[in-house]
Write a structure and sequence with these properties.
homodimer, about 280 residues, alpha/beta, Rossmann fold, Glucose Oxidase, domain 1, 6-stranded mixed beta sheet, 4-stranded parallel beta sheet, 8 helices, 10 strands, about 15% strand, globular, Class_I_gatase-like (chains A, B), serine protease (chains A, B), muramoyltetrapeptide carboxypeptidase activity (chains A, B)
């Protein structure tokens, strides 16, 4: 069993002390090989964000550049890591290049930028904010097992041969038109979405399939959850939307992926960082 | 007083017969110089859309290519004109190049694509769907006056010297990363938004300022209306968001614009198609 010294910061929105306690209790009881340290910035509040941009960037750089940590785990998504990604990357040192960076949803901006700049290992994975509920803890355990070298929480379509990335759909659309975008040639691109109307999902697929450079291995559709009710039915399911745009834009549609804002959200190490999932 | 022979189609979502009657009554009573004809496709329904993609594209091409009309007016936004824009453009003939095309919101995909391909005159303007309410009719009259050569409904910052475009913010973000995007070098770019959280507006400005090519004259912010309540305050106003991203990305912020999903939505002919507004 590998141990990991885990630093936690909040590049987007804040968590509370009770979120932190819930995670610390879980680690103490079930993962005593790990240590977790919450950067005080996790609890800072500045309007929508976990502190001003400069504070969030500084906390991330503190965690990334500290040789006493192996893993930087993002506490929570929400919105805001896009505002600090480029600045934070520019301050990262040699120690930052040795680390695992884990999170998902809005933290995809950072996973993308780190992957683009070949800094450490980006991993789409459940986050500390979910540790307060029994269902949420199932996902959090998946991340903690991955940090310990246990690959049982991997997304089941990962074959150990095709590189992959996983993103929230809106986040990837935003990333794809920005300097944060990594080269995803030959990659399986997995996308998930939460709390968006199906017409908005359709619109995002229009955008994504326009912005992606040619040459990806294909798209897999994660969970599309908490779709708000509209005044009328959209007329296509989320999977039909993905199939429509992939067919129209000449991108292989590869089927579903077990990622999303659900308890089944699995671990997707970016690139080729994992063995094949044992499905 | 100029007359205009106006064809109405619905490239996105449908209207009802009562919307059509309200507009026809308004035209008969106040603008007898104009004629309006609703394409039957306006009332077609296919899930979210005013008929399947092929039907919507065909109706738009019918209206555009018919020498018996001077103006094509989009009945309503909603979502969907992005799915048909490129196909419709590819079928347009010489008559289509003589026309005015008017609408806004989701119909911005078409205004953009027409402007890119130098087909007729794109005009951001209120739409027929608003003719049922007294407040909505104020906007509709602005469009009908513009079709009659009366420039009193122009957006007041238009100076007759600086080319301009006007868009819904999400629509422009989607357009900007797609083959529909026109060259907006040296243009004032006006953007408005409705029913989006302020964090989403911030995210859209991140995207827009990344996607816009350098060299625009600047951004003007239209109305940001019907912002849903969030669990906490964002911490910046919509105008502060626009100012933040413009400053960060080196784009001049030029102040407010009178466009939006409001009764004050003014007319913005794309490019340099109008004289200075009489403010």
């Amino acid at each position: 069993m590998q141990m990991s010294r885990i630093a936690i910061c909040a590049p987007a929105t804040p968590i509370t002390r009770s979120h932190a306690e819930a995670l610390q209790n879980l680690v103490a009881e079930e993962f005593p090989e790990h240590s977790v340290e919450f950067h005080p910035q996790c609890f800072a509040v500045d309007g929508h964000f976990a502190g001003p941009d400069a504070l969030r960037a500084e906390a991330l750089v503190d965690c990334a550049n500290d040789p006493n940590f192996d893993t930087v785990w993002f506490a929570k998504g929400g919105y805001g890591s896009n505002r600090i990604a480029q600045a934070a990357i520019s301050f990262m040192n040699e120690h930052a290049r040795q680390k695992t960076y884990a999170g998902f949803s809005d933290c995809g901006y950072l996973l993308a930028a780190l992957y683009r700049h070949d800094i450490g290992q980006s991993v789409h994975a459940p986050m500390p904010v979910s540790a307060r509920s029994e269902r949420g803890r199932e996902g959090v355990r998946r991340s903690l097992r991955w940090f310990a070298g246990d690959t049982s929480g991997l997304e089941p379509s990962l074959d150990g041969k095709t590189p992959a990335v996983a993103f929230n759909l809106i986040t990837l659309c935003m990333v794809a038109g920005s300097p944060l975008m990594p080269d995803v040639t030959d990659h399986v691109v997995m996308v998930e979405e939460v709390s968006e109307h199906l017409y908005a999902v359709d619109r995002l697929f229009f955008q994504l399939t326009n912005l992606l450079e040619p040459g990806i291995a294909g798209i897999r559709l994660g969970a599309i959850t908490a779709v708000p009710e509209n005044d009328r039915e959209f007329g296509q399911s989320a999977e039909e939307i993905a199939q429509y745009w992939c067919a129209r834009m000449g991108i292989p549609y590869l089927g579903r992926a077990q990622i999303g804002h659900t308890v089944d959200n699995r671990v997707v190490p970016f690139g080729l960082a994992s063995p094949a999932a044992a499905t």
